[in-house]
Specification:
The chain is α/β, with parallel strands linked by helices. Helix content is about 45%, strand content about 10%.
Length: about 475
C-alpha cells in the first residue's frame, strides 16, 4: 500500500482518485476487495487509500488490510461484521453509521460487473504507480543512475500483476469456515428434494435420463413450472418442439387443464397464470443448429438487459450442435455436458437437461446410467441424475419409476414409483410404500411391485459383478 507523493508533498492539482467512476463503482470495488482474496492481494500492491473520495470507504478498506497485516489471513464477511461493530471508536458517529449502513447493503449482494470493476481499478492504480516511478526517474536521470532508473520502472510495471496462485491454505483460512449457501431450487417432488438438500443449487447440473416417449421433456416442464411458481426466472431452450407447444405444456402444468382442451379455455388459463410470480422465457432453436456458445450468447444478452436467470432447461443437450468437431460423437457429447456445467457455474444458476437412453432402456423397469445413450462419461460432470422408466403396462395405468442414479448431495441408488399423466403434465414422485395405480386389477400391488423391483435390482447387481470379473 502506498501514498502517491512527489518530492514528499502533494498538491490539490496533483491529486487523483476514483471520483470519475462514481460512488457505486467505489462501493463495489471495496466489496470485491473483501470477497475476493486473490484480487485483494493483487490490488494491494498499487492501491492508495486516498483514491477513494468517500471517507467511509477509506476507513472500510483500511480495516480490511489492517486485519490482513495483523493476522496474516484475509477477513471473512462475518469477521468484517465483528470488526465494524467493535473497532470504529476512533471514527465520528456519522462515519460509523455510513460504514455500517454500507456493509448492511452489500452483505448478501452479488456484483454483476466484477470483471469490469477489477480491470478498470487495476489499470487506474497501475498507471498512477507508473507515473510515480517515471517522476522519480527524472530525478535519478540527473545523477545518471541508469541502473536504478531501469529497476524503478521495471518494479512499477510488475506491481499489480496477476498473482492468483489458487486457494491459499493459510491466507484463506477463514473461507473454510464460512457458510456457503447453495440456494437450491426445488423440483416440486418432496421425495426427491429431501435427498438432494432442497433441489439443484447454483452452478449445478441435473440430468433426466429416459427413452423416447417416456416423458423427459414433461419432467423438464414440471421442474421449470415449479421454479416459476416459486418466483424464479426460468429460460427454457427447446431444440425439438415449437416454443408455442412448450408454452402449452406449461399452461397445462400450471393450471392442471388437459392439453387437448387449452384453446377454448384461453381466458380461463390467462386468469390462472397471470399472477404467477416468476418469469418464463422459451427460446426455440432448430435441432442441431444451436451450440452451447449460442445459449451462452443468449444468456449474456438477457443479463445485459437486466434479466438475472435462476434456472435454465435445455431440451435436450444431445440435440445441441457440438462447439468443436471431434472424431467420435461421444467425445462431442462429453464436451457439451462439460460446457453446460461450466455455463451454470459462470452464470450462477442451476441447469437441467435430458439425455436419451439406448435401446436397452426402452422397456426396462429400472433405467441405470449404463443405459445412457452414446457417452457414459457425460454423467461424470452432472451433480444429480435421475431416470424415468415406463413400460407399456405402466403407461396404461399412468405409472412408472424414477431411479436416482447420481446425487452429489445425498444418497443415490433409490427407486421411487411415480404417477405420470401426460394429458395434463401431471407428475408425482410417490413414497415407495404408497404407490398409486389407477387400476389395481390390472397392476400388481405396491408390495408385489416393490419385491419385484428388489429382485430385479439384485439380479442386475449380480450380473454387473460377473461382468467386472
Amino acid at each position: 500500500m502506498y501514498n502517491t507523493m512527489v518530492g514528499g508533498s502533494m498538491t490539490n492539482n496533483d491529486k487523483v482518485d476514483f471520483s470519475r467512476f462514481g460512488k457505486s463503482f467505489q462501493e463495489s470495488l471495496c466489496q470485491l476487495v473483501l470477497q475476493d482474496r486473490p484480487f485483494a492481494d493483487q490490488i494491494s500492491e498499487v492501491l492508495d487509500y486516498n483514491f477513494f473520495e468517500l471517507k467511509y470507504l477509506q476507513v472500510f478498506i483500511k480495516k480490511i488490510f489492517s486485519y490482513r497485516d495483523k493476522y496474516g489471513v484475509h477477513p471473512s464477511p462475518k469477521i468484517m461484521l465483528t470488526i465494524l461493530r467493535s473497532d470504529l471508536e476512533n471514527e465520528n458517529d456519522a462515519i460509523q453509521k455510513q460504514i455500517r449502513d454500507y456493509y448492511a447493503r452489500i452483505y448478501d449482494q452479488d456484483i454483476r460487473d466484477s470483471k469490469y470493476i477489477k480491470d478498470t481499478s487495476l489499470e487506474f492504480c497501475k498507471k498512477q504507480k507508473l507515473k510515480e516511478a517515471m517522476l522519480k526517474s527524472v530525478e535519478l536521470l540527473q545523477n545518471s543512475s541508469f541502473d536504478e532508473i531501469a529497476k524503478t520502472i521495471n518494479d512499477a510495471l510488475i506491481l499489480g500483476s496477476d498473482n492468483d496462485f489458487g486457494y491459499d491454505y493459510f491466507k484463506d483460512f477463514e473461507a473454510r469456515f464460512q457458510f456457503k449457501a447453495r440456494n437450491p431450487i426445488g423440483t416440486g417432488w418432496k421425495e426427491m428434494d429431501d435427498i438432494c438438500k432442497g433441489g439443484l443449487g447454483k452452478g449445478e447440473l441435473g440430468v433426466v435420463i429416459a427413452p423416447t416417449g417416456a416423458g423427459k421433456s414433461m419432467a423438464l416442464v414440471h421442474i421449470g413450472a415449479q421454479a416459476v411458481k416459486a418466483g424464479k426466472t426460468v429460460v427454457y431452450y427447446t431444440l425439438e418442439l415449437q416454443d408455442t407447444v412448450v408454452g402449452g405444456r406449461f399452461d397445462s402444468c400450471l393450471t392442471g387443464l388437459p392439453l387437448n382442451e387449452l384453446i377454448p379455455l384461453k381466458e380461463q388459463i390467462y386468469e390462472m397464470v397471470k399472477d404467477v410470480p416468476g418469469q418464463l422465457i422459451i427460446k426455440e432453436y432448430p435441432t442441431r443448429s444451436a451450440s452451447t456458445n449460442t445459449i451462452k450468447a443468449h444468456l449474456e444478452k438477457l443479463r445485459n438487459r437486466g434479466v438475472e436467470v435462476d434456472m435454465v432447461l435445455v431440451d435436450y443437450a444431445d440435440l445441441l450442435r457440438p462447439a468443436s468437431v471431434q472424431r467420435e460423437r461421444r467425445h462431442e457429447l462429453e464436451n457439451t455436458y462439460e460446457d453446460l456445467r461450466g455455463m451454470a457455474q459462470e452464470f450462477k444458476m442451476c441447469l437441467w437437461t435430458a439425455s436419451q437412453t439406448n435401446r436397452s432402456g426402452l422397456n426396462a423397469e429400472v433405467i441405470t446410467m449404463e443405459s445412457i445413450s452414446e457417452a457414459f462419461n457425460k454423467c461424470f460432470v452432472a451433480d444429480f441424475i435421475f431416470s424415468i422408466s415406463r413400460t407399456i403396462e405402466d403407461k396404461v395405468v399412468n405409472g412408472g419409476r424414477v431411479f436416482i442414479a447420481k446425487n452429489r448431495n445425498g444418497p443415490d441408488g433409490l427407486v421411487y414409483p411415480i404417477f405420470m399423466d401426460t394429458s395434463n403434465v401431471s407428475i408425482k414422485v410417490l413414497p415407495p410404500a404408497t404407490e398409486e395405480t389407477l387400476n389395481a386389477s390390472q397392476a400388481p400391488s405396491s408390495k408385489e411391485q416393490s419385491q419385484h423391483l428388489f429382485d430385479k435390482y439384485k439380479k442386475f447387481k449380480k450380473q454387473g459383478a460377473k461382468k467386472n470379473v
